[in-house]
Amino acid sequence: MSKDTKKTYNVVPGIKMGLVSPDHLVKIATVAKKYNIPILKITSAQRLAFLGMDPDDANDVWQELGEPDGLTKPVGIHYVQACPGAGLCKYGRQDSLRLGEMIQETLMGMNLPGKTKVGISGCPMNCTESYVRDLGIYGKKKGWTLIFGGNGGGNPRIGDVIAENLTTAEVLALAKRCLTYYAAHARKKERTARFMERTNLDEFIEKTKD
Ligand code: SF4
Fold first, then answer.
1. Whole-angstrom Cα Rg for the chain
2. Ligand 1 within 6 A of CB of 121
3. Cα separation of 79 and 100, whole Å?
4. How many angstroms is it from 23 CA to the middle of ligand 1?
5. Best of 90, 127, 138 to mutate for ligand 1, by most ligand atoms within 8 A of CB?
6. Per-residue pLDDT for 3 more than 50?
7. FRET partner for 58 with CA separation of 20 to 30 A, picked from 5, 74, 107, 175?
8. pLDDT for residue 65
């Protein structure tokens, strides 16, 4: 990688759960060519990054992509990953893409203490690594399992199972209560994994029940 490619790293906004349309791809390619973006990279978070973009072009690039808020960093949920799930994958037990959309619509704006990553898998194969996400959810035949406090990276932690066999409405409501509890009790910038290490699990489960 040349020195220039280290200039800036920006994630293209508007790509959620790795879903793209042909029109969006054409628009991205057109803008990337116009501004000579040296490297386009699909990230591990199912998004697309512009690597090496000239910092002076950043505002214009996001305007042309139709995403004027592109430079705004999310304060709560950093991203939602979801696998294809039921209907699109032969192993799928639950509709992970639909649940991902619902989480994006209802929980993305929450003000949380630390970066929060969400992984939703449609079956126990856990292709989005739900056990090592701050909020992980995976589907079984009987319903959703919710996991909280997982983390990958340099200090990994397997998240705690908070509840199983939940309906979509129940898992959405429980996810909100878990995040609300975390927001109220965690230290500033404390990730869920570190928070759960010093939290009594039984008490957490009890307090986040409806
Ligand atoms: S987690 Fe299950 S449903 Fe989702 S892509 Fe993997 S195998 Fe398919």
1. 18
2. yes
3. 10
4. 27
5. 127
6. no
7. 107
8. 84
Q: What is the pLDDT of residue 126?
A: 97
Q: Where are the domains of the chain?
A: 3-64, 77-207
CA of 99 from ligand 1 middle (Å) equals: 14
Which pTM value belongs to this model?
Answer: 0.90
Contacts of 44 by beta carbon, 8 Å cutoff, 6+ apart: none
17 in contact with ligand 1, CB cutoff 6 A: no
Q: Confirm or reject: Cβ of 91 under 6 Å from ligand 1.
A: yes
Residue 74: its pLDDT value, please?
A: 61
User: Does pLDDT of 6 surpass 90?
Assistant: no
Q: For ligand 1, is residue 29 a contact (CB within 6 Å)?
A: no
Question: Which of 6-16 are b and which e, b meaning 16 or more Cβ less than 10 Å from the residue's Cβ?
Answer: eebebbbbbbb
Q: Domain 77-207 adopts which CATH fold?
A: Sulfite Reductase Hemoprotein; domain 1 (3.30.413)
